[in-house]
Amino acid sequence: MFNKEFESMPIKKLRELQVERLKWSLGHAYKNVAHYRQAFDKAGFHPDQFNSLDDMKRVPFLMKQEMRNNYPFGLFAVPMDKVIRIHSSSGTTGNATVVGYTKNDIEVWAEVMARTIACAGGSEKDMVQVAYGYGLFTGGLGVHYGAEKIGATVVPISGGNTERQLMLIKDFGTTMLACTPSYAINVADYVEKNRPDYKWKSTKLRAGIFGAEPWTEQMRKEIETRIGIDAFDIYGLSEVIGPGVSCECSAKNGLHVFEDHFFVEIIDPQTGEILPEGSAGEIVYTSLTKEACPVIRYRSRDITKIYYDSCSCGRTLVKMDKVSGRSDDMLIIRGVNVFPSQIEALLMEIEGTEPHYQIIVDRKGALDDIEIMVEVNEKIFSDEVKVLNNLSTKIRQRMQGVLGVSAKITLVEPRSIARSEGKAQRVVDRRNLK
Ligand SMILES: [Zn+2]
Asked: Which single residue of 5, 122, 173, 321 has CA 20 to 30 Å from 64?
């Protein structure tokens, strides 16, 4: 354990610590962020009335849309000269959620990521190859700071460039790989197809910490047998802090949430009622220590369960299941969040297309494939092939630029997408992630 005091704290003491920290966090949000002050006042709740965890049910939720409405810095609780880092989710202006970090927030983030690496058996003796993207996305720098904090050697290679990834794993003696699980499978595919001389066994790679997209036990087995490493699930979301919200330990039967920094509840996504331990529902996060961007009862839309039973690893922290789905229509494609509404808005801007489309997501091999079928109007459809080709190129480029994922665009004739009760089925997800 990286931090035995907090990771194996007696439950009673941990709950007392949470109450004390929640008092601070709720007060901090109320005092410094107009959005929270208005929402709390409207709900008839004042942070001074908070005395026990049971009082949390009186605190209003924070929705993703409210974060967007406050783009870019409306939810910041400290002056900008205290903010030393900005990260953001993908999306166009108004769609993206922007988060800021104070010096102390970066410290907390490094701490929880160091714990995550330790959970997967890492220490100062390891060399961690960070193949998550660096930039506004929280993955790369999150893992990077955590690996430095634990004293490991960091290889900040960022995503892509598989040939170079393989070379560094071999030449540098990388022991831990951090990337999306689908990229890990992609690397295994690449080796089998193109590098029959590459022997995983002759490298020092022994573990991987994989996150930023949902994955299955079957994918774990595949990674573990094909690469010959231990694969651990890590979880995080930029709204809460980035990677390091929770992670699997050696028991690999759930992800420990770092409860001294994040308070979690499971709610019924329809009614908002808090559900008992072991029920499937939407996980809701409240930050306990964040200064720049406190999140108070943030509705993640991720569906999971939580368990308070003890764990063989000795951690007393609550465990959450692997995320099994979403309570909204968001798609996660190659680690990028995509909402059908974003695609629809884009098509509306392009002349010649109809607002009828279908998004087909598939996973052929390791990586997600996205195909967007777009109906075009009669006039365009009767035009020559060149015009149609230009249109599909234009749509593809706009999608790539705005969403950050490349999609195959297929133009189809008017009224060819099946409609039921006048509505087309917008998303066909053929990935079998259960
Ligand atoms: Zn454990």
From this structure: 321
